[in-house]
Write a structure and sequence with these properties.
By secondary structure, the protein is of the alpha+beta class. It is built from nine helices and seven strands; from the N terminus they run H-H-H-H-H-H-E-H-E-E-H-E-E-H-E-E. A five-stranded mixed beta sheet has the order 2-4-5-7-6. Strand 6 and strand 7 form a beta hairpin. Helix 1 packs antiparallel against helix 2 and helix 5 packs antiparallel against helix 6. The protein is rod-shaped, with a radius of gyration of 37 Å. The two termini are about 25 Å apart.
């Protein structure tokens, strides 16, 4: 932002210098046409426009640190009027000092004072207005940049919070299962501790990653499923069907775990039967589409139970990342609860 500001100021300065030089040449040409000598025209133009440029720079520097708001726009008129008066007095004094012995030239200066003042007032007024617009626009851009940065930080904080809220829930369930296995199946409890350690270690590595490829996400999901299979034993079977061309495609890290956890909860908690959860990934147009299917008993379970914090957090993350609310869909077909997640592939 600082580099942009410096570049903009240099551009503004170059434009000002160009216009100042053009006006000095016009001033010199007009005086030559009125019969002044080359020395008189050059001195008059140089003196008048150097002072005028100084007044313009004074306005620019003042506007840089003080921008009048809507109720104080009269400030532009006042400063233009005042500086034009000061400019005229100082210019006449300097020209009188340079050419005090030339009565003809000094008479011309006196007769042209009104015109000189009017031109100076218009130029200074235009300069004040340009500076007001320039620095107001610059200030607005800086405010917009700060607002965008604040929104970005807030979004990242919310995304981080959503990821963190999922972990304690899963961790407590896993620790309860380990506690239940310690007495009856110590080998399984030990295995589950190792798997939980690998899972949490992977979580820490992913904290700084916003997007990962599908292959990496599925490998991480396998760690989670291995832990759940220790918890539920033979009752839980999973089938992962992933098209080969989908593996390099990107998706938000740790996105699928709450979706699959929701499917396990929805499919297993209200039944004692064995269930199979199917996870499918395919490419459709410019989207990675992941579908998770799990059976449920409509007599003992309700789809509303499958739309709690897990799926709502997924939908919220997708909205924060892609500004869309249509990337997560749920539906029921016969005895299947289907969750579909679509992830746009940014080119």
């Amino acid at each position: 932002m600082l580099a942009y500001s410096t570049s903009s100021d240099k551009k503004f300065g170059l434009v000002f210098a160009g216009w100042w030089l053009a006006w000095a040449v016009v001033h010199y040409s007009v005086l030559m046409n009125y019969g002044l000598t080359n020395a008189q025209a050059l001195t008059d133009s140089f003196t008048s426009n150097i002072l005028l440029a100084g007044c313009c720079l004074l306005i620019s520097n003042n506007m840089r640190y003080y921008l009048p708001r809507k109720e104080k726009y009269w400030y532009v008129l006042v400063i233009s009027f005042s500086l034009a008066c000061v400019w005229l007095v100082v210019t006449r004094l300097l020209l009188w000092a340079f050419f005090k012995s030339d009565e003809t030239y000094l008479a011309m200066v006196n007769k042209s004072s009104t015109v000189r003042y009017g031109i100076a007032f218009l130029i200074l007024g235009c300069m004040a207005t340009m500076c007001l617009l320039w620095f107001t626009q610059k200030e607005q851009k800086e405010m917009d940049a700060r607002k965008m940065e604040a929104e970005k930080l807030a979004k990242e904080a919310e995304l981080y919070k959503l990821r963190q809220q999922l972990q304690p829930h899963f961790l407590f369930n896993s620790l309860n299962s380990i506690s239940a296995l310690v007495g009856s199946q110590p080998d399984q409890a030990r295995k589950m501790i190792y798997q939980l350690s690998d899972f949490l270690r992977g979580t820490l590595k992913k904290e700084e990653q916003q997007l990962v490829n599908l292959e990496e996400e599925l490998e991480y999901l396998e760690l989670y499923l291995d832990i759940e299979k220790v918890r539920f034993g033979h009752r839980l079977t999973t089938i992962v069907d992933c098209e080969e061309n989908c593996k390099p495609m990107k998706l938000p890290s740790l996105l699928l775990q709450p979706v699959v956890e929701n499917a396990i909860k929805f499919g297993l908690y209200d039944t004692t039967d064995d269930i199979t959860i199917r996870i499918s990934a395919m490419q459709k147009n410019n989207y990675l589409e992941v579908v998770v299917e799990n059976p449920f008993d409509p007599e003992t379970s309700s789809p509303k139970k499958g739309t709690g914090f897990g799926l709502s957090s997924v939908q919220r993350r997708l909205y924060l990342l892609f500004a869309r609310n249509d990337l997560l869909e749920t539906k029921t077909e016969n005895n299947l609860f289907i969750t579909k997640v679509k992830i746009p592939q940014l080119i």
